[in-house]
Amino acid sequence: MGEWEYMGATDQDALLTERFERDRPHLRAVAYRMLGSLAEADDALQEAWIRANEAGVAGVENLGGWLTTVVSRVCLNMLRSRDRRREDPLDARPGEPRTAAGPAGPDPEEEALTADSVGVALLVVLDTLGPAERVAFVLHDLFAVPFEDIAPLLERTPAAVRQLASRARRRVRGTTPAPAPDALRRRRVVEAFLAATRGGDLAALLNLLHPDVVLHADRMVVPTPEPIVVSGGLTVAQGAMAAMGRARFTGLALVDGDFALAMAPQGRLRLVLVFTLADDGLVTGIEIVAEPDRLAGMELAVPA
User: Fold this and answer.
1) In this predicted structure, what is the pLDDT of residue 10?
2) More confidently predicted of 198 and 224
3) Between 225 and 75, residue with greater pLDDT
């Protein structure tokens, strides 16, 4: 029995409240990596708090681990529910859950900063995993929870959970060939493009683009009845400046083994930018892909 067994109900409630608030940053981090959205993570924490209160903590030996399990179980249920409605467009899904952060949920800037700190590419790859794989990988690989502790949550054996995490790890790392010999230069150019777009630095962007650069965007990017083709450094750069809002949710990713940019608001892939470079390092072509079938056919991985 734990120390909770010898406390009155009021004392247990007070200590549970204190511990939950102390662990909130950790619990929110776990939920965010599982769900890819701060609004959904906050919603999961609210549901976990209700469940923890209803269950009581008498006899709990490891309160921190127990709270992590409660949050993880809520996230697992949310992921399974999401899988059942994954065919719905993101914009057509029910409104974001109302959270303690306010009627509109977390601030978009906080959402963007959090996605950037975790890694947009990681969130994108995690979103391609099944619920059990995602939970196993997040808990074990990102938060060092032993397989033996994850197994009851997923109703699997520790060996089966190990296999789930291993499969997820291979997806995160990718299976495409290693990047080309000029990969470092390509990475720097793509990162510089993103930095200039986020910062609204038109001059820096123009320095990266070939004067005759051509941008192709499929019909789902805007969307429009037909694909869009834009040419000329200034025109392409000005278009990129108009997409500064999108750039906040965009990050470096490996796409089919090459460095590219992936945009993923709420951790869900919406479009990919693929770059063509000349021998001098200038960008001669940009392809923006948003058609779901084409996105599904791309292999995305997390850059090392």
Assistant:
1) 67
2) 198
3) 75
The sign one gets for the Cα dihedral 64, 69, 75, 78 is negative
pTM: 0.84
Domain boundaries, the chain: 3-173, 183-301
Spatial CA neighbour of 274 closest among 218, 231, 224: 218
Pick the closest to residue 153 from 85, 88, 74 (CA basis): 74
Longest distance between any two alpha carbons in the chain, whole Å: 76
Classify residue 201 as exposed, middle or buried by CB count within 10 Å of its CB (0-12, 13-18, 19+). Answer: middle
CATH placement of domain 183-301: 3.10.450.50
Q: Give the separation between CA 132 and CA 119, rounded to whole angstroms.
A: 21
β partners of residue 254: 259, 301
Q: What digits encode the pLDDT tens for the residues 105-138? A: 678 889 999 999 999 999 999 999 999 999 999 9
